[in-house]
Amino acid sequence: MVRAGLTADRVTIAGAELADDVGLDQVTMSQVARRLGVKDASLYTHVRSLEDLRGRIALLAADEKTIRIAEATAGRAGKDALIAFANAWREYAHKHPGRYMATQTPIQIDPELAAKAPGPRRAVELTYGMLRGYGLAEPDLTDAVRLLRSTFHGFVALEAAGGFAHKRSPQQSWICALDALHTLLEHWPPSREGDSS
Description:
By secondary structure, this protein is mostly helical. It has helices spanning 8-22, 29-36, 40-43, 50-73, 78-95, 97-104, 111-116, 118-132, 140-160, 170-186. The protein is globular and about 55 Å long. The chain starts with 7 loop residues before the first helix and ends in an 11-residue tail after the last helix.
């Protein structure tokens, strides 16, 4: 018998909390069931599989992260927007490491669920909107998006893994990296469209 009040959303939140506690790759359906105080079989009424659950966690996290970035960047432009965007990204990764990893891990997500989720679309809109403030257009916009994502994710992943053991604090390096990104975005090199070198 399914516990009263158990829903796909409750299962997803329990899975997300577990991912933050133990890491996304350590989440199992059995652990989620124990957290909710139900039998494993009860979960399958609400989520089809572990992969389905991970996809739902990814969509939840994308929504949460996007909301934080939107709030942080509202009314800002240029360097102020870049810094607010980056800080909101990093703070979310620090606060919710398991959920954050779900947004950076290739996961098969139910197309119907993905179509209804505003987070991923809104994230693209926010990122491209912020970068248009630097006067960028395609194909430079896509290149700049990839650079930002690589920088932000690379930094927080190395930070989480204890990869910054030097006496200079990661925060000081983060500030320097954002200053460098701002300068680069203001002086973006001419597009080399069609050049495969």
